[in-house]
Amino acid sequence: MNDRTARAALTAVAEPGEALLNRIIDRAGPAGALEAIRAARPPEDVITTEHDVPRAVARLQQWRIRLQAVDPGQDLAVAGNLGLRLACPGDPEWPTTLDDLGDERPYALWLRGPEDLRYNCLRSVAIVGARAASPYGLRVAADLGAELAEQGWTVISGGALGIDAAAHRGALAADGPTVAVFANGVDVPYPAGNDGLFAEMARCALLVSESPPGTPPRRSRFLVRNRVIAALSRGTVVVEAAWRSGALSTATWARKLGRDVMAVPGPVGAHTSAGCHRLLREHPPALLVTRSEEVIEAVGRIGADLAPEPHNPVLPRDRLDPVTRTVLETMPARGPAGPAQLAAKAGLDLATVNGKLGLLAAAGFVERTTGGWRLTPAAKARQ
């Protein structure tokens, strides 16, 4: 059996990211790992202490039982018929960032969609968050997804309801790249409510899974797949998350892998943002982000992807020349003042003040009264 077929079998035999199995693969190769499973005997030097031998043998025996029902050739044939493919370590499409996971890296990845996984992960950001998201969170996730995609960044998420789906849809709306990492087979639409989204992603984006075609979702695999989301991306943005949330698991993995962790703040009393606020208070704290430019500044090239400073709004008085603005600032908040009084306060001659009062009147800042000059109601409202 060649290594590719052996890796296809291993994705069906063991749970994703088993450290023991990855150590056996490192020692004996994928085909050798299958032989070790059939013999229920680990290779030498894989088990470091005698205490771990019984546990390792029990795990190998469990995998051997599963192996009897596995047909990797059929899985690969089904994948070919569905337009799926298997990416293995060493393939041109394999993202080398997955090696950062060490003994918990995937054995292989099943892919669906036309995009190249490795290329798309070169400039990528994970956007994750609550399934039961608020309208605020959905809008922020969709906006971030679209804006990042417009600027050439791939949006990676988990395909779940709520924040994940909003981020994917935002990227698709901008005709940008996006990747969904599943906890089930890439041909199994879960959750069913996102079936249309997954169909569109299969047509123009990319679906990724560690499990063979036809694998149903399992609760334990949702948290395990979060390590892949974190490893594929250069940073993770948590848009909304409860105090205990799967999205925080992705952030934990990102921090562990040395990736940037970012969080979007929300209303102080919103339980959907409690997890984000928790990340912002931790040590080290997550980076607070509110717009795509700040995300790109965090994960982009040093000195080349700086976020532009937000522009302050330009007020009508900002367009006045300095002398005219000085005359305006000497006007009393209540009641009128005569030109001579204003000239004394401003430190200007009377002729200059009279000229500037005419300009201010034409611009709607002041008006003449029987007692002198005063601010207009509109000017008072703008103060």
UniProtKB/TrEMBL annotation:
Highest taxon in the source lineage: Bacteria
Classification via Pfam families: DNA_processg_A
Ranges of residues in domain Smf/DprA SLOG: 87-299
GO biological process, one term: DNA-mediated transformation
Family, similarity comment: Belongs to the DprA/Smf family.
Name the UniProt record assigns to this protein: Putative DNA processing protein DprA
Gene: dprA
